């Protein structure tokens, strides 16, 4: 059982791992031979050393702060975005009134809004959560709304002839059909949430990986700065993988029931 699973994993990600190893070796070689100054691009071994040396700060304080902000804003965006998408799908008046505002909200640079959120919420966690929410909200609303609009007409008409209510159609047809689109938006949103948390910390924070990388950049400590960037990327990859796993579990279970 383990061997076929390992072979499948190697088949799916073997080329990526090989390319990643070659890139890291080339990166290390370029810096070691002095083609690029270490204060501009530190070697992977130097970044690893900074991760170990500053692990008590990076892992114990700043990573947890960023993860807390990203997850809280992400969960709020999922609940609010899915509810708003369902409301716009059910009531077309809401869709006509609110959809343009949702699009407009994405045209405003987050860097311009972050000081406003700091003015409203102070330097608390909620100013960062607000940035995360605004960043992660849009993919959830759009993907869920588009997925609900795909409701298969034949099944709907069949259920109507059998006396089904509007809630029955929404629950048994439109929600299952919308799940793939919903999870597509979810995967984008969970990655954007890390970006939003980092932006919020850069512009007004006292902890978090974004704040730490800004402080290290000001001190020209590129080893530690790249270490924090690596952890931010690792958070995004881990959250994306978790959503992918959840998607596979739910869609597989739904397919089994069928």
What would you note in describing this structure?
The chain is globular and about 75 Å long. The chain has helices at residues 2-32, 44-53, 55-90, 92-105, 110-121, 125-148, 153-161, 166-204, 209-218, 222-257. The model has no long low-confidence stretch (mean pLDDT 85). The chain has 258 residues and is mainly α. Helices cover 86% and strands 0% of the residues. It has two domains: 1-40; 53-257, MetI-like fold, CATH 1.10.3720.
List descriptors.
MetI-like fold, globular, about 85% helix, about 0% strand, about 260 residues, single chain, 10 helices, 2 domains, mainly alpha
Helix amount = over 70%
Radius of gyration from the alpha-carbon trace, in angstroms: 22 Å
For the report, how would you describe the main beta sheet?
Answer: none
**Series of secondary-structure elements, N-terminal to C-terminal:** HHHHHHHHHH
Number of contiguous helices: 10
Task: Tell me the distance between the termini.
Answer: 26 Å
CATH topology of the largest domain: MetI-like fold
Report the strand count: 0
**CATH architectural grouping of the largest domain:** Orthogonal Bundle
Write down the overall mean pLDDT: 85
> How much strand?
under 5%
Report the uncertain regions.
none
Write down the overall geometry: globular
Describe the structure concisely:
The chain has 258 residues and is an all-alpha fold.
């Amino acid at each position: 059982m383990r061997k076929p699973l390992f072979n499948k994993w190697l088949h799916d990600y073997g080329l990526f791992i090989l390319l990643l190893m070659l890139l890291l070796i080339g990166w290390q070689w370029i810096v070691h031979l002095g083609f690029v100054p270490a204060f501009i691009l530190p070697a992977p071994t130097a970044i690893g050393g900074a991760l170990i040396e500053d692990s008590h700060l990076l892992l114990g304080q700043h990573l947890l702060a960023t993860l807390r902000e990203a997850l809280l804003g992400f969960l709020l965006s999922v609940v609010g975005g899915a509810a708003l998408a369902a409301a716009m799908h059910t009531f077309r008046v809401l869709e006509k009134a609110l959809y343009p505002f949702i699009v407009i909200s994405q045209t405003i640079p987050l860097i311009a809004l972050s000081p406003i959120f700091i003015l409203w919420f102070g330097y608390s966690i909620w100013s960062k959560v607000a940035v995360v929410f605004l960043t992660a909200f849009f993919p959830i609303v759009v993907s869920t709304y588009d997925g609900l609009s795909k409701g298969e007409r034949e099944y709907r008409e069949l259920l109507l002839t059998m006396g089904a209510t509007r809630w029955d159609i929404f629950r048994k047809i439109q929600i299952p059909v919308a799940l793939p689109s919903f999870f597509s938006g979810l995967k984008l949103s969970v990655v954007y949430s890390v970006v939003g948390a980092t932006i919020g910390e850069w512009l007004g924070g006292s902890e978090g990986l974004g704040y730490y990388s800004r402080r290290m950049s000001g001190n020209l400590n590129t080893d530690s700065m790249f270490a924090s960037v690596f952890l931010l990327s690792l958070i995004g990859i881990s959250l994306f993988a978790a959503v992918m796993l959840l998607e596979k579990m739910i869609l597989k279970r739904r397919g089994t029931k069928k």
